[in-house]
Amino acid sequence: MTINHAGSLKKEYFISYMKLLMNAFGCSVEEAKDRTFERLFRLRESEMGQETYTQFLLAYRDLMKHPND
After folding, report:
1. CA distance 28 to 38
2. Does some domain include residue 4?
């Protein structure tokens, strides 16, 4: 997935990205969250800005509530 650094990424982007990881690697929501944080944020909350990080956390919470949607 291509990332446009011009603006913040939305919750839907992260939901799609983490679902892709879950399908490709057969991993859990928690593992997908960890891989996303490592790959996109380089293990730093501030890497992509606060708004993008907030959207990432919202996506993770949504996936935890509804992992099979």
Report:
1. 15
2. no
Range of the domain at 45: 11-65
Q: How many structural domains are present in the chain? A: 1
Q: How far apart are the C-alpha atoms of 47 and 25, rounded to whole Å?
A: 24
Q: State which H helix or E strand residue 52 sits in.
A: helix 50-65
**For residue 61, is it within any domain?**
yes
What is the C-alpha separation between 22 and 41, in angstroms, rounded? 18
**Cα angle, residue 48 at apex, residues 50 and 59 outer, rounded to 5°:** 70
One pLDDT digit (tens) per residue for the chain, 69 residues: 556 555 899 999 999 999 999 999 999 999 999 999 999 999 999 999 999 999 999 999 999 999 777
pTM equals: 0.89
